[in-house]
């Protein structure tokens, strides 16, 4: 908990945004979700370890992420939940809230407009549009579906800052062009296709099928049997710990001639080396005296 709530030198959240890595921004959104839950539970102070565990990161990474926000906590005390939450909201640009227009009143669009979590996180769905005569004029979550042809005319009154696309692939680019022409600065698309937009327009894509494929890969990787530690004859596979074929242990040198078959020079008993007992019994091994 600290009385300092702004960044050093009174720098605002907007000034800090340019210096925060994208990966940190993603985690800040996670910290904000956790802090909102803690606030709902009446928690006033949270330690970095507790917040890190709840967010699924280690405490060192959490402290580094929060360092981009300026001083926010006191060593040995923790973070003021309300103040840290407000600080992250400021940096993420949520302090003033956002108005959202939804394009597409199909199953996905109706599910999104009916989701109550947007409002508590600073997002207000201001309008919903579609081109299907069967749904135009219908009301969902208190919003009447408007004709997509009215989009440009309705934008000034709705004053949205973000548009969400829940339309089929073949319609996504046309709708994107309409939104760009209407002056929308940020677009979130649930269509898996890539959208072309000017550099000043931020476009993010949510590909649910791709996310499912990543989960499928993780599940397949976790279920894959581990490679055997020792190679089995005739298996046709080389285990991880089997040395390469040019390793001395895999070579087949000529048998060692017995010592009695070699002509040796007679020496006095006292000249026998004291390391005789440690000499290797087979070729291919190296033992340091």
Describe the 3D structure.
Residues 279-289 have a biased composition (Polar residues). The protein is α/β, with parallel strands linked by helices and 289 residues long. It has 10 helices and 10 strands. It has helices at residues 13-17, 22-40, 48-55, 59-67, 81-91, 107-113, 117-120, 151-158, 169-181, 208-223, and strands spanning 45-46, 73-74, 78-80, 98-103, 123-130, 139-140, 143-147, 162-165, 186-189, 202-205. The protein has a 7-stranded mixed sheet. Helix 2 (22-40) runs antiparallel to helix 5 and helix 3 (48-55) packs across helix 4 (59-67). The chain is globular and about 60 Å long. The two termini are 63 Å apart. Residues 1-13, 231-243, 247-251 and 270-289 have low confidence and may be disordered.
